[in-house]
Design goal:
The structure holds two protein chains of two kinds.
Chain A: H1 10-42, H2 50-61, H3 72-106, H4 119-138, E1 145-148, E2 151-154, H5 155-180, H6 186-210, H7 213-224, H8 232-250, H9 253-259, H10 263-268, H11 273-295, H12 301-313, H13 317-341, H14 350-367
Antiparallel strand pairs in A: 1-2
Chain B: E1 2-12, E2 15-26, E3 30-34, H1 41-48, E4 56-61, E5 64-65, H2 71-77, E6 78-81, H3 93-98, H4 111-123, H5 139-152, E7 157-161, H6 169-186, E8 189-193, H7 197-203, E9 206-211, E10 214-219, H8 221-224, H9 227-234, E11 236-243, E12 246-254
Parallel strand pairs in B: 3-8, 3-9, 6-7, 7-8
Antiparallel strand pairs in B: 1-2, 1-4, 4-5, 9-10, 11-12
Helix pairs in contact in B: 4-5
Classes of the chains: A mainly alpha, B alpha/beta.
């Protein structure tokens, strides 16, 4: 069939109306995220009003035009301590939520996420492996620095990311191949994720058992999930990784859409399904693992954000991916801010809050959502 | 345009599903694939769609090996509608039908794409369902959505794997009749796997009858679908009934 028939504007009008709605949701989420970031930067043991926070940002960007706030400590607190943490939280939220949305699309399973596929456990195992064995394997080099593209990084950070990524990716690929042999049923895939997660947890326990006091403390803190590791070098490493991975996968949004029709339909529409699945998992696992290497286990963001966004704007991945990224960042930012202030001056790991929030949401999906959300 | 299926065999593991299938489908005609369950209809459709690789033999489009054609170009030539559908919650009918335009789009959706989609929706009589979620529709409505998706793909050849299995009687007749009209009018081609022999008799130009993965008969519907062939292939006794509307097969008992 060369041409189906004469044109009409009804579908065009509907399409553009729906697009406008989706863009409005994206803009709203972005605005809330920016506002929350400014407020969260000001909240803490020393309260800094939002206008002072903005003045600090403005002064840092345009020192000649905008003067720094009267509070002399505000510059130091905002730029050296709070901003890196806020940015790490946003980057982790973006990476984990995007990974969740992409995994759900690639594997056509609404219950998969970096956490449920065992990636979080595996990446943490990889990081712990480097904490415990790194000094023995790499000697003095482990504590040294490396110059990459004019920026100095600690060798330890680079090795942590690499190790977390290899283990994280290994877990996802293992789950994928195990479930493939069983026709990729939703239950088998989740069970495979749980089993792979257990295996890496066993490795983690073994590492904890053989580690010395310092390494053990570092691992335990890590496992609870927190943003304490936020420094500017961390942001310099993670920002390009998360950004590039996001752009790469956003460029394949239409291919993710076609997978919703099933493998056969996607193949018929010109997609190399097998290659896309592997490369897509590789890309999002890289970004998620790199973030997890610095934050420890953060569960459920990758499950919650894409599902809420689907309810808001539907399943078009061109919009679902940025919406999930923004909402993932927002959820993690609010959770981390609550974790910082709820028992001030004591901080609790954000991972604990995410477990509670995520667990309740997961329950909602599998009980109330039956048929509607998980069809 | 034509699709030649040249001595194609197919197997799952060591189990041979298709053996030495050899025929040609031409544009401007509707070819029905018939045969009982397990005779290899779906496997043959998937093999022609390049979803499965033939174990032996070759499939050619206008003399060019199908496997040598760029996947995007192939997607513009062949539109496939599977027997079983996948859909994701919160995907609208419009977004689902729009998937058919994937081979023609990079990122943005043009008004031309939307016009083609609008016509596909209109042909399948589902324009009013455009903003509904696919998972909220009935089985029959969903089936029409996926046929509209293939129409939006605007291919030269349609491959339909039992597209009417979830439709009620009226929509079965309407759908096959509409598709036949499109094929005849636009000089496209269609290979359609069917269970209903009377749909094949009434609306198709050629019939390929499969039995146990082999070609039993190939030709005009009236020549292929006889009392004897139906008894041999399906194991049922039937009678030919003719009236002013045409020729019909009435199957009444297992043989």
């Amino acid at each position: 069939m060369k041409k189906v028939g004469k044109s009409s504007t009804k579908t065009t009008r509907l399409y553009h109306t729906l697009q406008k709605r989706k863009r409005l949701v994206l803009l709203t989420l972005a605005a809330i995220l920016i506002l929350s970031s400014i407020l969260a930067t000001g909240i803490g043991s020393v309260y800094i009003p939002p206008l002072d926070v903005l003045a600090v940002f403005g002064h840092a960007l345009f020192p000649d035009l905008i003067s720094s706030p009267d509070n002399g400590m505000a510059d130091l607190i905002v730029l050296s301590f709070r901003l890196p943490r806020i940015l790490l939280t946003i980057l982790a939220g973006v990476a984990l939520a995007t990974a969740g949305a992409v995994m759900q699309g690639l594997l056509r399973n609404p219950l998969v996420s970096p956490f449920t596929l065992g990636l979080s456990s595996a990446a943490s195992f990889g990081a712990a492996l480097m904490i415990v064995l790194g000094p023995a394997i790499f000697g003095t080099l482990f504590a040294g620095t490396i110059l990459l593209a004019g920026v100095t990084f600690s060798v330890k950070s680079v090795l942590l990311i690499f190790s977390a990524f290899i283990c994280g990716w290994l877990s996802v690929i293992l789950v994928y191949f195990i479930s493939r042999t069983k026709n990729t049923s939703q239950a088998i895939m989740i069970l495979a994720g749980v089993v792979i997660g257990y295996l890496f947890q066993a490795g983690l326990l073994a590492l904890k058992y053989i580690s010395n006091d310092d390494a053990l403390r570092e691992i335990v803190t890590w496992l609870m999930g927190g943003m304490w590791g936020a420094t500017w070098p961390t942001i310099v490493i993670l920002l390009p990784i998360v950004l590039v991975c996001f752009i790469l996968i956003e460029c394949r949004a239409w291919d993710l859409n076609t997978l919703s029709g099933g493998d056969d339909v996607a193949k018929n529409l010109g997609i190399n399904v097998q290659r896309f699945r592997i490369s897509g998992l590789l890309i999002v696992s890289f970004a998620a693992s790199a973030c997890l290497a610095f934050t420890g286990i953060i569960g459920f963001v990758g499950l919650m954000a894409p599902h809420i966004c689907r309810m808001l704007i539907g399943n078009d991945y061109r919009y679902l991916l940025p919406a999930s990224a923004l909402l993932g960042a927002l959820i993690l930012l609010i959770s981390d801010t609550v974790a910082r202030v709820i028992f001030a001056p004591i901080e609790i790991p954000v991972g604990i809050i995410m477990y509670i929030l995520g667990g309740l949401f997961f329950l909602f999906l599998i009980t109330r959502g039956h048929g509607r959300y998980l069809a | 345009m034509n699709i030649s299926i040249e001595h194609v065999s197919q197997k799952y593991g060591s189990h041979v599903v298709l053996h030495d299938i050899d025929f040609k489908a031409e544009s401007g005609e509707v070819l029905a694939l018939l045969g009982p369950n397990g005779s290899g209809k779906s496997t043959l459709i998937k093999t022609i769609a390049d979803i499965l690789t033939p174990a032996a033999g070759m499939i050619k489009i206008d003399g060019t090996d199908l496997r040598g054609i760029d996947p995007i170009d192939r997607a513009k030539m062949i539109g496939y509608v599977p027997q079983y559908f996948h859909y994701t919650p919160f995907t609208t009918v419009l977004d689902t039908v729009l998937l058919g335009r994937r081979p023609y789009m990079n990122w943005s959706v043009s008004d031309d794409d939307l016009n083609v989609v609008d016509n596909a929706l209109s042909i399948m009589n589902i324009t009013d369902l455009s903003d509904r979620f696919v998972n909220e529709l009935s089985g029959g409505q969903r089936q029409r959505v996926f046929i509209a998706r293939a129409l939006a793909q605007a291919p030269s050849f349609f491959l339909f794997d039992e597209p009417t299995s979830s439709l009620d009687l009226r929509h079965q007749l309407e759908t096959v009749s509409t598709m036949r009209d499109i094929v005849h009018k636009d000089d496209s081609g269609m290979i359609i796997a069917l269970h209903d022999l009377n749909l094949a008799l009434r609306y198709t130009d050629k019939v390929l009858l499969l039995k146990d993965g082999e070609m039993y008969a190939y030709g005009a519907p009236d020549d292929v679908l006889t009392v004897d062939s139906v008894r041999d292939v399906y194991g049922v006794n039937s009678a030919i009934v003719e009236n002013e509307q045409g020729r019909f097969l009435l199957s009444y008992a297992p043989s």
